[in-house]
Amino acid sequence: MAAESRLTAQRQHADSGAGAGDYFELFELPARFDIDIALLRRRFLELSRQCHPDAVAMEDAAAQAAALATSARVNEAYETLCDPVRRAEYVLRRAGGKSAAEDKRVPPELLNQTLMLREEIEEAKSAGDQAALTAIRKSVLQQKGDIEGRITELARRLAGQADDSVRDELRLQLNAMKYVGNLLAQL
Amino acid sequence: MAYSNKIIDHYNHPRNVGSLDKKDPKVGTGIVGAPECGDVMKLQILCDDNDNIVDAKFKTFGCGSAIASSSLATEWLKGKSVDDALQIKNTDIVKELALPPVKIHCSVLAEDAIRAAINDYKKKRAAEEQPADAAVK
Question: Is residue B58 part of a domain?
Answer without folding.
Answer: yes
